[in-house]
Every structure is written in structure tokens, then in C-alpha cells.
């Protein structure tokens, strides 16, 4: 029966995490996995989340009935408003649908499954991108998955000219995936004027935008600023898909809480799309999990709780910015060869350091520092106690490998 089953290759990110756990060094540093840590290096349950959890479990009305196929309505409505903006024409004209998913990954997959059925075209992913994107679209059955240039290793910034030239050369109606903010792994986002330029070409070429938004509010500390790209495309009249995750901005990683919001031309089309998404959910997950959605719904729909959440978001974004600054200052003090400005110029959870695969393996081997082989560093893994050690490790590895 299982004669032909071979061992699947390990997931690069989860594999680094398990090597880190096995490492017995007292100075080991985990900057591999993208999960927030406090300055003590501990996971953080946001105070507002803890409060609402208690409210939910102590409520005499709590039951464990199935949610509808499209999830908790107070959660999905609030999610659509959060990403599109309360005054978005799409919201006011009720021409959207929002369907609950198994976190951000599930939202991307739900969107991919839907597009495979109703818009089976070429998919373009940024190069580089979150490692899971390629596999999700492959598993959804897309056969033509191509890349578009995004990052320029020389400037360690956006390759805007190349990106635009590539958009112009794409086949009409192709699907183009964007990270709404805090691009993973590079931490490089288009500026507002660059998004405007991108949207203009997308419109001319009739390209279809699919936004993956895993870091709203977490990138800049402002929920509106981090949603600018999506809202700009909506203002320009695009129909679009946006996958939302509450893993990072609510710290609800294991609750698998997410939403797929679709902006359509008419309320009737939105309803048709909603029913098709329900149909997909039915065979894959039947109905989504309730706990995370109940937490998020309570917070998004209560002005006082919302304020508390925003203040925690600012705290997380602020701590990460501080780590960028401290790492940069340490490297400058050490006189580490190379230019390190990108550490403070990039945004969100990750810094794309520019370290080579050889350097990443060496830093793991010699200094017990765990990062992906692409040189991506999760800034949340740094804190005031380990940043000096981390900077020193980079400094030494860079010097060891100088040609
Ligand atoms: C770009 C991007 N999309 C989606 C996700 C999905 O995360 P989750 O499924 O945990 O919500 C992540 C998480 O790292 C991500 O970086």
C-alpha cells in the first residue's frame, strides 16, 4: 500500500526551530521563526487577549456549537472593515464578502482554491516570497506559477523598475500576489507612490491582485498605514482578494484565526462568491474554529478593548524598531565590513540581512544563532540581552568570510 511513499523534505523554517530546541548552548539565539517575543525572549499573550479569553470562558452563554460555513459573522464583518476601512465604498455599498479561514495560510489557500475554480490563470509571486506561497498555489492545482522581480540585492531595496517592466509584460488577467505590508522575507515594501505606479500598470494590463496581509498594524504600528496598499487598489476600482491573519497582530498563532475578504463589483456577485467559498470550506474544514474568532470579534467590536489592542500593537512594533536600531548601532560600533542601513530601512518582523548561505550556516555552527539560509532574521527573536552577542556573531562571521 505505502510502497511508493518516500520521506517528504523537512519544512525549512520548522526544521531550524527543532534544531534550535535541541541545541544545549546557553547563548543560543532563535531568529528563525516569525513569532513575537518579549524582551525576556518569551511568547506574549496580549493583555487584552487574556482579558477577553477570561470573559469568554466564564460566560454562562458559552457553547461549542458549530459556526456557520463562513464563520462567525461579527468576526468576518469586522475583519473586512479592518482591512478595507469602515468608510470604504466596498463596505458602504455592501459589495464584499468575508469568509473565516484557518489563519492566514488557510486564507491564502481558500483564495487559491477559489481562483483555481473561477479564474484559472497564470499566478505571479514576488521573488523572493514567503516559502509557503509556491506550495499553496501548486497544491491548489495551478500549473503556471511564475515569479516577478521584487528585491534588488545590490540596493537591498525594492527593484521597482524591473518589477514594473515585468508587470507590463504579463499576460492579461494573470493573478499577481502582493504582500500588503511588511514583505516576508525582505522587510521591503513599496512606498505609496510606488504602489500607485503598480496599480496603474495592473489596471492597464487587467491584472488581478491577490493581497496577503499577515502583519496589519504589526509593521508600522498603524492599522490604517499598513492597509494603505489594499485600500488604494480598492479606490482604483479593482476587484480583489485579501487574506488576513491574526497570528502576529493578536498573537493568536495556534488558534488559527484568519479571514478571506473579497471585494466585488456588486452585492449580488459578492453573495455568489461567498457561497462558493462556503462550498470550499465545507469539504476542507466544514466550519472554522470559534475561539480565536470570538476573541478578535470582541476586541474589534468594542471601542475600549480596541484601544487596548492598538496600544499593544504599538508596543510590539516599537520593540521591533528598537531592535533594528540597537543591532544597527552595534554593527556600526564594531565597524563590521559592509553597509547595514537596510536594517533600519526595512520594516516589520524580518530583516533580510544580505548574509550568504555560507555565512548563515557558519553563524549557526560557531555561534548557535539560528536563521534561515536566505539570511532572513526575525527581529522579534532579538532583545536587549542578546543583541550584542548577535551583532558580534555577525561581525565575526563577516570577517571570517571576507575574500
Ligand atoms: C506572508 C505571510 N503570509 C501568511 C502567513 C500565515 O501565517 P498564519 O497561517 O500563521 O496566519 C505568514 C506567516 O508567517 C506570512 O509571513
Automatic annotation (TrEMBL):
UniProt xrefs under CDD domains: AAT_like
InterPro entries cross-referenced by the UniProt entry: Aminotransferase_I/II_large, Asp_trans, PyrdxlP-dep_Trfase, PyrdxlP-dep_Trfase_major, PyrdxlP-dep_Trfase_small
GO CC terms of this entry: cytosol
Keyword Transferase in record: yes
Cofactor(s) annotated in UniProt: pyridoxal 5'-phosphate
SUPFAM superfamilies hit by this protein: PLP-dependent transferases (SSF53383)
Domain Aminotransferase class I/classII large stretches: 27-394
Name this polypeptide is given: aspartate transaminase
Species, as recorded: Rozella allomycis (strain CSF55)
Lineage of the organism: Eukaryota, Fungi, Fungi incertae sedis, Cryptomycota, Cryptomycota incertae sedis
Amino acid at each position: 500500500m505505502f510502497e511508493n511513499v518516500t520521506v517528504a523534505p523537512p519544512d525549512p523554517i520548522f526544521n531550524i526551530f527543532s534544531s534550535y530546541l535541541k541545541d544545549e548552548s546557553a547563548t543560543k539565539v532563535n531568529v528563525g521563526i516569525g513569532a513575537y517575543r518579549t524582551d525576556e525572549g518569551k511568547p506574549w499573550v496580549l493583555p487584552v487577549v487574556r482579558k477577553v479569553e477570561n470573559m469568554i470562558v466564564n460566560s454562562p452563554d458559552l457553547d461549542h456549537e458549530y459556526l456557520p460555513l463562513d464563520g462567525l459573522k461579527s468576526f468576518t464583518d469586522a475583519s473586512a472593515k479592518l482591512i478595507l476601512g469602515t468608510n470604504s465604498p466596498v463596505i458602504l455599498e455592501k459589495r464584499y464578502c468575508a469568509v473565516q479561514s484557518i489563519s492566514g495560510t488557510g486564507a491564502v489557500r481558500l483564495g487559491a482554491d477559489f481562483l483555481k475554480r473561477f479564474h484559472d490563470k497564470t499566478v505571479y509571486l514576488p521573488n523572493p516570497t514567503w516559502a509557503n506561497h509556491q506550495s499553496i498555489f501548486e497544491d491548489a492545482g495551478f500549473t503556471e506559477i511564475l515569479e516577478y522581480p521584487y528585491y534588488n540585492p545590490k540596493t537591498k531595496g525594492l527593484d521597482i523598475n524591473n518589477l514594473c517592466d515585468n508587470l507590463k509584460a504579463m499576460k492579461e488577467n494573470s493573478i499577481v500576489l502582493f504582500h500588503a505590508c511588511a514583505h516576508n522575507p525582505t522587510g521591503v515594501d513599496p512606498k505609496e507612490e510606488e504602489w500607485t505606479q503598480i496599480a496603474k500598470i495592473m489596471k492597464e494590463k487587467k491584472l488581478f491582485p491577490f493581497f496577503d496581509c499577515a502583519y496589519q498594524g504589526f509593521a508600522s504600528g498603524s492599522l490604517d498605514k499598513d492597509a494603505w496598499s489594499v485600500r488604494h487598489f480598492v479606490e482604483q476600482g479593482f476587484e480583489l482578494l485579501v487574506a488576513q491573519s491574526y497570528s502576529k497582530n493578536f498573537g493568536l498563532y495556534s488558534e488559527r484565526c484568519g479571514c478571506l475578504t473579497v471585494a466585488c463589483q456588486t452585492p449580488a456577485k459578492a453573495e455568489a462568491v461567498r457561497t462558493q467559498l462556503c462550498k470550499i470550506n465545507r469539504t476542507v474544514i466544514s466550519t472554522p474554529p470559534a475561539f480565536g474568532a470570538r476573541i478578535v470579534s470582541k476586541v474589534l467590536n468594542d471601542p475600549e478593548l480596541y484601544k487596548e489592542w492598538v496600544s499593544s500593537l504599538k508596543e510590539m512594533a516599537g520593540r521591533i524598531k528598537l531592535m533594528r536600531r540597537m543591532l544597527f548601532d552595534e554593527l556600526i560600533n564594531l565597524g563590521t565590513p559592509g553597509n547595514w542601513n537596510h536594517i533600519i530601512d526595512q520594516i516589520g518582523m524580518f530583516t533580510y540581512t544580505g548574509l550568504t548561505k555560507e555565512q548563515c550556516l557558519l553563524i549557526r555552527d560557531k555561534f548557535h544563532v539560528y536563521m534561515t539560509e536566505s539570511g532572513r532574521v526575525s527581529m522579534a527573536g532579538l532583545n536587549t540581552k542578546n543583541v550584542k552577542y548577535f551583532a558580534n556573531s555577525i561581525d565575526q562571521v563577516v570577517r571570517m568570510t571576507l575574500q
